[in-house]
Design a protein that fits this description.
The protein has a 7-stranded parallel β-sheet. Helix 11 links the parallel strand 11 and strand 12. It has a single domain, classed as TIM Barrel (Alpha-Beta Barrel). By secondary structure, the protein is of the alpha/beta class. Helices cover 38% and strands 16% of the residues. The radius of gyration is 20 Å and the shape is globular. InterPro entries: Met_Synth_C/arc (IPR002629), UROD/MetE-like_sf (IPR038071).
């Protein structure tokens, strides 16, 4: 299905000016989703509005100069739960309380495993098909949560799994299935989003694991295994990247810490084609862990532009930080993006839509100066 022109285009991804994927939901879309919840419009009517707003979004991404486009996760309430609940044996449910971010609590939603995790079909395959149909001469990039998000964020009904190994095996098989199905529909640029690594980046997170009787080093290796095995059977022309995040809800975060503790695993042990990394403030630490990058074909996407606030970064300071990172990784392996999406949940971060697009154009302009 892949022609040579498409293959050559995708080989350039992640692009020198790229993005994580989610965008602020337009007010019209927010209202429509509320109307659907209140049974004022049908699912079909909501779908029509989603389609129309995604078409507008894709055009705006092209106008901003991006070479890959997403659907902005416009059909999702959450960046991860909605996708994970598309597997057999996984359900959304209401929790007693939400996760605490710095200064704000998120909504009390969660996922639970009620039966063996399987892939038979997945409703988001249709979401990708629509995106692909309107992408035109840009690359349709699809974003999904890493398998670790189910391992580390789900609750489990008793008796479903008797061992962690059995669960990981089923989860890997399910991911291999949905990845192949997306590929069959034309997906050539897939991004795994993963906040679970944030728990390894701080002493606080590692101590919390130990308090639960877990060995952080063993959990790190399991996390790497889940990713590597999930993508092990991907076709050669499917490019897979991963975004490592420290939390993004209404411009807040839930974790801090540099990549030092797990740098050997992240930069030397994951079989992805590229890594989207947060480097927008001091919470992310230094570039020194990049010294563990041991592959010339691994792209490092520096998240130096914050998606949390509207003020534009000084372009010369951004360029200086790119030059600093290039001391550890060759410049031709580096790219630039915002440090996260603009709306990991439907609420979105605390900036305007125009500020969002100014940020995207800022990324594109700086990348043009540095690499072209």
């Amino acid at each position: 299905m892949t022609n040579s022109a498409t293959a050559n285009t995708v080989k350039k991804a992640p692009f020198k000016a790229d993005h994580v994927g989610s965008f602020l939901r337009p007010e019209r879309l927010k209202q429509a989703r509320l109307q659907k919840e209140n049974l004022e419009i049908t699912a079909e009517e909501l779908r029509k509005i989603e389609d129309e707003e995604i078409i507008k979004l894709v055009e705006k991404q092209k106008e901003a100069g991006l070479q890959s486009v997403t659907d902005g996760e416009f059909r999702r309430k959450w960046w991860h739960f909605d996708f994970l609940a598309g597997f057999d044996g996984v359900e959304l449910y209401q929790t007693e309380e939400g996760v605490e971010f710095k200064g704000v609590s998120r909504k009390a939603d969660g996922i639970k495993v009620t039966d063996k995790v399987r892939f038979s079909d997945h409703y988001m395959i249709e979401h990708f098909k629509f995106l692909k149909s309107i992408a035109g001469n840009t690359v349709a990039k699809f974003t999904i949560p890493s398998p670790n998000m189910l391992l580390h964020r789900a609750t489990f009904e008793e008796g479903i799994y008797t061992s962690n190994e059995e669960l990981v095996n089923d989860l890997v098989t399910a991911y291999q299935g949905v990845i192949q199905a997306l590929y069959d529909e034309g997906c050539r640029y897939l991004q795994l989003d993963d906040t679970s690594w944030a728990s390894f980046l701080s002493e606080e997170g590692r101590e919390a694991m130990k308090a639960k009787g877990l060995n952080p080093d063993q959990v790190v290796q399991q996390s790497a295994q889940a990713i590597n095995e999930s993508i092990a059977k991907r076709p050669a022309d499917l490019l897979v990247t991963m975004h490592i995040c420290r939390g993004n809800f209404k411009s807040t975060y839930f974790s801090s810490g540099g990549y030092d503790e797990v740098s050997a695993t992240i930069f030397g042990g994951l079989h992805v084609d590229g890594l989207f990394l947060e480097f927008d403030d001091e919470r992310s630490g230094s570039f020194e862990p990049l010294a563990h990058v041991n592959r010339p074909d691994l792209s490092i996407v520096l998240g130096l532009i914050t998606s949390k606030f509207g003020e534009l970064e000084n372009p010369e300071k951004v360029k200086a930080r790119i030059a600093e990172a290039a001391k550890y990784v060759p410049l031709n392996q580096l790219c630039l993006s915002p440090q996260c999406g603009f709306a990991s949940t439907e609420e979105g971060n605390l900036l305007t839509e125009e500020q969002q697009w100014e940020k995207v154009r800022h990324v594109v302009a700086i990348a043009q100066d540095v690499w072209y």
